[in-house]
Protein: Transcription termination/antitermination protein NusA
Amino acid sequence: MSKELLGALDVLETEKGIQKSVVIEALEAALVSAYKRNYDQAQNVEVQFDQKKGDIHVFAVKKVVDQVYDSRLEVSLDDALAISKGYEIGDDIKFEVTPKNFGRIAAQTAKQVILQRVREAERNIIYDQYSQYENEIITGEVERQDSRFVYVSLGKVEAVMGRQDQMPNETYRIHDRIKVYVTRVENATKGPQVFVSRTHADLLKRLFEQEVPEIFDGTVEIMAIAREAGDRAKVAVRSNNPDIDPVGTSVGPRGQRVQTIVNELGGENMDIVEWTDDEAKFIANALNPAEVLDVIFDPNNERACQVIVPDYQLSLAIGKRGQNARLAAKLTGYKIDIKSESEASAIMEADQAADEQPVSDDDVTEAPAAEEDTTVAPEAADDVSADAATSETADNADETSDATADDSSAE
Structure:
């Protein structure tokens, strides 16, 4: 058994990367328990494994005392001095108590320990390996799918992708190879658990880093991302080099760079806008492809503003189901109230008239009908009212928005 055990330890270290010392330490601890269990012993026991010969020795450890109360745990000073004159009270003495038939028990225990340690070591190796990929992109293969998860093979581990992390416009089939973003890695009791996503905003960031060298090396920086996975995304970029156009660089020649990302994400539309310190200009850029005439900040709320757009571009600014305004609000972090030019002028004239005309206590004025709300808060994902324009105008504007967005990306 000794030669076989030594050979098995060498194989483990060579093929599995499990250090021999780790297995031996676990084996010695397991043999202590096995000895006590099989021989009904309660004394302090220590097991030593000879790494050269593979022999196993069991020792009973007893403490030197003046008066012995438990012979299994203690030895008298006189008996200790009979063994060696150097012993003193408080010293520990080891007495070998290796049973003759302990080899069979040791072999069974060694097998169990080795299997257990192999599993644990493989889990730790896998955890250490894949924890390095946390917050990064990795390519995997779809293995199976159930009502809760899509299971993606990453090689040595099977990652899970929850429903909220699955693209609504994608169908995952067995053996499909997909790029996923590793959101977190957990070292669970049953083994490492890797969670991946296709909808995370940082997936888009990593894809841009792969396709745009200037973003990877930091010359162009992604400042913010607002994304509705599978449908549309807005990306704000800035350049740390005044000679480099951040939008043009990100789009690439004839839109090749951004088109590669769009294809990877199943046709998700991409608006790339320039980030600037001028918040009014940044808000106007974020509402691309709509034209913005003016941005008026709310003096009572530093994170709110009113945006004035031409009448014919109101639906374009709001977007399909409020999407353009919603993404712009997420991108900038501002609560955006979109008004058409004529509506804003009417409100301004009404306010001026009210200021100029004195109001008598006897005057009773009927309150005007409430304006339809076109305000979008950054955190309000679905509370945008796009009814400011007729449905026909909105549909035409949607088509204009898609065409304009594509032209913006290609420039």
Summary: The CA atoms of residues 332 and 365 lie 39 Å apart. The first strand starts at residue 45 and ends at 49. The chain has four domains: 2-126, 135-199, 216-275, 278-350+372-411.
